[in-house]
Amino acid sequence: xxxxxxxxxxxxxxxxxxxxxxxxxxxxxxxxxxxxxxxxxxxxxxxxxxxxxxxxxxxxxxxxxxxxxxxxxxxxxxxxxxxxxxxxxxxxxxxxxxxxxxxxxxxxxxxxxxxxxxxxxxxxxx
Length: 126
Known about the structure:
Shape: globular
Largest sheet: none
Radius of gyration: 18 Å
Structural class: mainly alpha
Strand content: under 5%
């Protein structure tokens, strides 16, 4: 595993999991803020139709790089980072042995690092 990529993926998962826990109903927002919730501070005309909030820039870059990877690696990112790491049950459900699970996780790190570097090069060139 690549420590820096592991930290980025954990941050990405924390951002996604946190967004999903935000209140979206009017009554839920009143309860969350103990009264009238603050107004949207986004740019005029901007909106969040699902009421999920926004990812920070780092998590967004990870999300975009993950979208460039094959599906099996995207699934691994979600399974491992969003749903509490390795478990024997998860490994069985995914149809792979423990070593295969960790080999695929390692491959995810290598591919994601490459995708992030590629995106950075494109941003610097553009």
